[in-house]
Design brief:
10 strands; Rossmann fold; globular; 9 helices; alpha/beta; single chain; four-stranded antiparallel β-sheet; 254 residues; binds adenosine-5'-triphosphate; 24% strand; six-stranded mixed β-sheet
């Protein structure tokens, strides 16, 4: 199936990307393209290889073979920090938050760790006006300005996930790799996160790994379906919904 037409060169692309763990090919020969102003969702059953794919794109795992390009440059051998400095941001399934610190401090540390002088990480906020400004902007965009001075520990589950996205935004990424941002959320929190994703679409290329199918079909412009490390189908939500292989293997009612 042909991916939906998108204008211009992809911001991030993978070509024949493969990652083996011993005999298991967790990601096998995957090619995909992420475009600016688009949410590209990756769905698949447990163990399909979605998190491994994100780790390969973010640089947390080296590829066994294949290439990754950012804005036309081959970044396959770049470390994770170098990719992050070039504009690749990611959020995690696991909690990456310093619970005793305030929301603002968490965002500021994230901005500061990304700056050219990360050794200034533990300096007071007053001495890092640039990072503080970026933290405030990220909190504002993620809808967390009202809880800026609260300890992260006091946030609801949904707000913690919003904080993870805000921490990612504080690094000023162009590409957002989001690993299950809706996990464990109730309907209201999910709606808030979906509104945030829709807002972030403009100005970013977003890869969204998510189990919540209603959410995926509501926000994604392109969906790639993975099974056992391979791409089963890729296309617009309508194309994927109608694909008989996808229906048989995965989607059921959707
Ligand atoms: N470090 C590792 N060592 C060995 N096998 C691994 C490792 N990481 C992942 N795997 C295996 O690779 C396969 C893909 O795992 P991955 O976590 O990428 O799947 P997933 O689609 O993200 O699953 P889930 O939806 O449950 O998060 C699984 O069979 C998993 O057990």
């Amino acid at each position: 199936m042909t991916p939906p037409a998108s204008h211009g060169r992809p911001l991030l692309s993978a070509h024949a990307l493969t990652r083996r763990f011993g005999a298991l090919a967790a990601v096998a020969d995957i090619s995909l393209a992420l475009h600016l102003d688009q949410i590209h969702a990756v769905i698949g059953t447990n163990g399909a290889g979605k998190s491994t794919l994100i780790n390969l794109l973010s640089g947390e795992l080296p590829a066994s073979s294949g290439t990754v390009q950012l804005d036309g440059r081959d970044i396959t051998r770049w470390s994770q920090p170098r990719r992050a400095r070039a504009g690749l941001g990611r959020s995690y399934q696991r909690n990456n938050i310093f619970l005793p610190l305030s929301v603002r401090e968490n965002c500021r540390l994230s901005a500061q760790s990304h700056a050219q002088q990360p050794w200034r990480l533990w300096e007071s906020a007053r001495r890092c006006p640039h990072s503080t400004r970026r933290a405030d902007e990220a909190m504002e965009r993620a809808g967390l300005a009202v809880v800026a001075n609260q300890p992260a520990a006091s946030l609801s589950h949904g707000q913690k996930r919003q904080l993870e996205v805000a921490m990612c935004l504080a690094t000023q990424p162009r590409v957002l790799l989001l690993d299950e941002p809706l996990a464990g959320m109730g309907p209201e929190e999910s709606e808030r996160m979906l509104a945030l994703l829709r807002e972030l679409r403009r100005g970013h290329a977003i890869l969204l790994v998510e189990h919540d199918m209603d959410a995926v079909f509501a926000v994604a412009g392109c969906i790639t379906v993975m099974v056992n490390g391979c791409v089963l189908a890729s296309g617009t939500p309508d194309e994927v919904r109608r694909n008989p292989d996808v229906q048989a293997a995965y989607l059921g009612e959707h």
